[in-house]
Write a structure and sequence with these properties.
Chain A is mainly alpha-helical. Chain A has one domain. Chain B has one domain: Rossmann fold (3-Layer(aba) Sandwich), CATH 3.40.50. The chains are: A mainly alpha, B alpha/beta. Chains A and B meet through helix 3 of A and helix 1 of B. The structure holds iron/sulfur cluster (SF4). The site of iron/sulfur cluster (SF4) has 13 residues of chain B, from helix 2 and helix 4.
Amino acid sequence: MSYWTAFILTLFSPVIGGFIYGLERIVRARMQGRVGPPLLQPFYDFFKLMDKRSIIIHSFHAFMGIMYLIGTWFALFVLLSGGDLLIAIFFHVLSLAFLVVGGFSVRSPYSVIGAMRELLHMVAYEPLYVLSAAALYLVTGTFQVSGILHSKHVPLIYLPLFFTAVLFSLPAILKKSPFDTAEAHQEIIGGPEIEYSGKFYEAVYTAKWIEYVYAFFFIFLFAGGNHILGALLIIFAFFFFNLLDNVTARVNFRQMVAFHWYILIPLAVINLMLIALWRS
Amino acid sequence: MDFKKFRKRSPWILHYNTGSCNGCDIEILACLAPKYDVERFGILNRGNPKQSDILLVTGPVTKRAKERLLRLYFEMPEPKVVVAVGACACSGGVFRHMYNVENGVDKVIPVDVYVPGCAARPEAIIDGIVRALEILKEKGKEVELPHWCSAQVKPPVNRVKLLDRCLEELHGRR
Ligand code: SF4
C-alpha cells in the first residue's frame, strides 16, 4: 500500500470504526431479541456531542483525552502504512498510557479505579500482542506489516493456538464483557472516561472506534498474503466476540489477568516453541 | 452545519432515584428492555451526568437526596432537560406532606416535563421523553440555574462556585 492511500485510509478510519461500532450495536441488540439502533447511530452521537457544552476539569485532563485519540490514530497509521508491527504496538500502549494518566489526574474515585484497571488490562493483553508480533516474524520473516501482507505463507496455518489466544483477548482490548473491568458501565460508569464531557468525550469516543479498526487489522494480519481469508477471519472474529460479549458476565480483574497469564499466554508460547523447533 | 437536529437522534439518559418506592424505576428499566427497546431511537442509559442530555428523576426528593439532585443537575452540561417521572416526582404523590420530603422535584430543580402515573407506564415515559426531546431541540447552551437561585453567571463559568452558592441558599431555605 502506498503512503498516500494509507494516509487517506487512516484519515477515514474513524468512519470505518463508526460503522463497525454501529453494526456491533445492531448485532448485539438482535442477539438480545431487540431491534437496536440505526446503523448511523454512532455518527448521530458524534454530532450531538459536538453541540454540547464541554465541562473541563483541568486543562491537562482534557489534553490527555485528545492525546489518546492522536496516539491511537498514529498507531493505526503505522499499521496501515506498512510500518513496523512493534512500533504500532508501542504507540498503542502509549496512547492508553495517556488515557490512564488522564484518569489518574482527577479526583473522581471512579476515574482512578478505572485507570488502575486499565493498567491491568494492558498487563493482561499486551504481552500477547508483542508475542504475536514475534510469532508473525517467525512465520513470515519480517516485522514490517507490508511484508506480512505480501508473504506467501498463511500464518494462521502455523499459528492456530496463537490465533485462538488473540481471539479470546479481543474483548480485553476492546473492553467488552467478559473483560470489561476497566469500563464496567454498571459499577464505575466508564472508568477513565467518566470525567470527559462534550468535545473531549467525543475525542475519547472516536478513539475507541479507531481501536476497533486497530484490533481487527491485527486479526487480518493472521491471514498473511491471503486477503480473502483475512476478510473472512475478521467477520468470524466480529461475530465471535459479539457472542462472547452477550453470553458472558464480567469477571473481576484477578480472573482476567489470571486467564491471560495462565491460559492464553502459555498457549501462545507453546505454539511459538513448536514453530521455532520445527523451523530449526 | 446545524447540529441541533442530531439532539433528537441520540438522547442519553441519566436516571436518578430520589427516594422513590422503586416502582417507577422498574418501569424506566422496562423501557430499555426488549419489549419497548428505546435504544431504537438512540436512547442510552449512560448513568453519567457529564455525558447525558436528559435527567429522569423519580421519587419525592427526600431531605438527603435534594443536595445530590442539585449536584447532578449542575454536573450535566447544557443543553439538558429534566423529566419528572411518576406522581411522586411531580407532586410528592403518596409521600406528600411527610416530614422528610420536598413534595416533588420542581421544588429543587426546574422541571421541563411531568410524567404522571403511579407507577408511570412505560408508554407514558416514552411519550414524556419524546416531549422532552422537542424542548431539548429548542434549548440554548447558556448555563441554567435553578429558579430560586440568585447567583449570577459570569463568562468564565466556574460551576463549582455556582454550585456552592446554590447549596448555601438551598440549605438556608426552610
Ligand atoms: S409514583 Fe408511585 S410507583 Fe412511582 S415512585 Fe412514587 S409511589 Fe412509587
